[in-house]
Amino acid sequence: MRFFPAALRHRAAGFAAALLGLALLAGCDAQRISELQPGQSTEADVRDRFGLPENTWPEPDGGHTLEYNRQPAGSENFMITIAADGTLVAVRQVLTQENFARVQAGMSMAQVRRLLGKPAKTTHFALSGETHVDWRYLVQPDTRMLFTVVTGNDGRVLRTQNGPDQNAVQNQGGGR
Fold first, then answer.
1. Between residues 18 and 95, which one has the greater pLDDT?
2. Last residue of a domain, one of 77, 93, 109
3. Domain residues for 22?
4. What is the percent of the chain where pLDDT is above 70?
5. Residue 141 belongs to a domain
6. Distance CA 136, CA 74 (A)
7. Number of folded domains in the chain?
8. Measured between alpha carbons, how far is 142 from 26 in angstroms, rounded to an integer?
9. Helices (H) then strands (E): counts for the chain
10. Residue 173 CA, distance from chain mean position
11. Which domain CATH number covers 162?
12. Which of these, 92, 94, 93, 85, lies nearest to 41 by C-alpha position?
């Protein structure tokens, strides 16, 4: 390690700490979810384990869905549905191939946001008039991917893209 400059060692240490934090967060989510029982657990139980949601979405039956976002660094977004009587209905990880396939040309970004949760990153390209909205997700066992929704100036979906997350360590190369 003494052959590497101090700045590089500090950067590597910071990166290792961030990875450890993400691993612990992912482990915590699995533990929290395992403690919840649909039909028995309450909204208070959910909030005790997950804290304040990123967003609360109303449901037609009088219930609501709590959004727990793990972007930009994580690879999951959870939607936790609560019935009108305050009991847990379901816990869903929404960054899935099935949900990505539901994103269609012409949809509004509000509809996409409701389906997938808060994105990791939004980038506007002034010359083309396009905006690229990215969600990071994981393909088992450990392939980090990026789902991108491309919108026009009207905020409607033009197309989607799937590909490797170029910011993931595994995709950055390492040759000399």
1. 95
2. 93
3. 1-93
4. 81
5. yes
6. 7
7. 2
8. 13
9. 4, 8
10. 24
11. 3.30.1450.10
12. 85
